[in-house]
Fold this sequence. Notes:
6-stranded antiparallel beta sheet; alpha+beta; 31 strands; Immunoglobulin-like; TIM Barrel; 13 helices; 8-stranded parallel barrel
Amino acid sequence: MKVGRKDFDRAEKGTGLPLGAYVRQDSYVQFSVSIPDHDNCILHLYRKGGEKPVQSFTMDKTWKRGTIFSIVIKLPNIEEYEYLYEVGNRYYLDPYTKLLTGRSEWGKVIPMDEVFQVRSKIVSSKNQIWMNDFLQIPFEELIIYKLHIRGFTKDPSSRVKQNGTFCGVVEKIPYLKELGINAVELMPCYDFDEIIQTTQCNVFGISSSISRSLPREYVNENDGSMKINYWGYTDKACYFAPKASYCAEPLYACDEFMEMILKLHANGIEVYMDMHFAADVNQCLIVDCLHYWVYQYGIDGFVLNQEAIPQKLLATDPVLGNIKLFTGSWDAADIYKEYKEPAFRNLCEYNDGFMIDARKYLKGDEEQVARFSDRIKRNPGMFGVVNYISNTNSFTLMDMVSYDVKHNDKNGENGRDGTEYNHSWNCGVEGKTRKKSVLELRRRQIKNALLMLFFSQGTPLIMAGDEFGNSQDGNNNPYCQDNEISWLNWSGIKTSSWILEYVKMLIRIRKEHRILHMPSELRMMDYISCGCPDISFHGTRAWYLDCSNYSRELGVLLCGQYAKIDRKHCDSDFYIAFNMHWEAHLFNLPKPLKQLTWKVLMDTSEPEEKQDEEIEITEKSYEVKARTIVVFSCHE
C-alpha cells in the first residue's frame, strides 16, 4: 500500500459486503468492488473537485475474498471525498455508486481534460431515508401515468419554475390528482450516459464485475455525429444513482429525488421506475439495485426488461414481496406451484398485446372480435395485466388517428428506425388537416380508443400528453429527440380540452364502479345464481356473439350483482355496444334484471356536451352509428 497523508488512518481489510462505498460508524468507510479477472486494484480518493487523488490504496490478491476487493478507511469529512478505481491501467466508476459528480449538465460531451471529474461520490446513510409507508394500491385500483422527467415539464408551456427536473414533477402533482392518477411510471431517471457515441464507450461502470466492461474511450467536443439518447434506455448507466442533470440542484440529487417521492406518496401516488439493465449485468447487481431503491427511496415498483432479469429470483425475493414488478410476461406455473394465487399480487404483465389488438379492432380490421373480447376481460388472478393504447414504441394517441405511416426522418436514420406495424389509420388525410369530416372522425376514434382502455378489466396506463392530444408529428420512435417533438406542449390543455375532460370522466366512472375493475378475472358464469353471468359477450343479436372474420360488432354485458357495494346494494349493470364497422348497425339489447330500464350513459358519436344527459331506452334495440361505442347502464 502506498504511504498516505496524515489525515488518513491506516487501512484495514473489509468484509466484502455490501458492495459499493458503505459508511460505517465513526467515519469509517468500506469500499468493496467485484473484479474477477485481476489480482490488483487501486482505489483513488479525491477531494471534492480536486484534479489529482489525495490518496491511493493499492490492493493485491491478499485483499481479495472471492472476487471482491474490500478495504476499510477512516475518513474525516466523508462527504468531501470522491473516488475512482483503477484496474489494468484503466479508470472505472464504482458500479454501485449512489451519486455521481461531473454529470450535472444534460447532454454534455465530456472533453479529455474533464473526464476524470466524473467520479463516484460517497453518500452518507444519514442523508437517506428508509421509506416504509408503501401505499400498496392493488392493480385493479391503479390508473398509471407514464412520463419522462425532462420532457414532462421542459417546454415553457408547462409553466413550472424548475423545468425538466424532479422538482418540475412535484409542481405538477395537483394536475395529476385532478386527472385521477394514482401511480406514475418514470422513464429511466437513474444516471445514464445520454450521449450516443459512434465508438463504444464506458464512462459508467455497467457491470458488477468492472474488469469485464468495455474499453474506455474519450470524446472531445460534439462534432455533429453525437445524438442524444433522450429516453435513457441504454447499457451505459449507473443504476444506483439518481440522474443529476434531472435536478434543479445536481449536488443534491439524492435529496431532490427523495423529495419528489415523498410528495407523490403524500398525495396517494405510487412511483414505478423503468430499469433497463444491460444483458451482461451481473444478476446479483440487479437484485441489490432493486433492494436499494426500495429501502432508500421507497420505490413502489419497477418496470424491467425481460431479457436481462432473473425472473424467478425476483418474483420470490422476500424484500420485493409487496413491490410491484412489471415485465413482458411471467411464468406463473414455475413461480407459483400448483397455480396457487399469491396473498398479494405484485407481478404484472406489461406488453403490447392490448395495444395491438385494440388498435386493429378500432380501425376495423377483420377477425378481431374474438381477440378484443378476450383483451377486455383479461385479468389473471396470479398476476396483473397493464393495458395501454399508446407507448414509447409507437404513435401517440393523436398520431394513431392522424398517420398511416411513420415519419422518422429527423432521427437521422433515413426512416429505417421505429416499427413498421403501428396499426394506425389517418382517417383519410395523412398528418395535420383542417378538413372537418376528418377531424370529426379522428375525434370519435380518440374517444373510442380511450373508452376501450378504461372499460377493460386490466390496469390502464396512459402516456403523458395523450390526455390533451400530444403529437410527435408522426415520429413513432423519438428516442433521440430532445426538443419540441418529445417535450409535452401543455397548450394542448386548452386547444384539446375536450380530450382532457373526457379522460377525467372515464377515470371517474371507472373508479366509481367496481364491476369495471374487478380484483380477478371474470368467469363468464352465473356462479351466484342471479340469472346472469358476471360477463357475457354478444353480437348485434343479444346472447349471440358473432366472431366471423367479417364481424366488427361486439356487445359486452357486465352484471353489477357480482360487485357488492355493501350487504344490500350492488353495482350498476353495463352493456357496451362496440360497432367498429363503417356502417351503422341495430343492436338488440339484453333484457335487464329486475325489470329495470337501460339508459344511455355515453355515445361516442355524440358531442361531449350531451354526455351528461342519460337517455332512457324504451325500445328493445338501439342503432349504433358507424365507428361508435355506446355504453348503457341500469341500476336500482
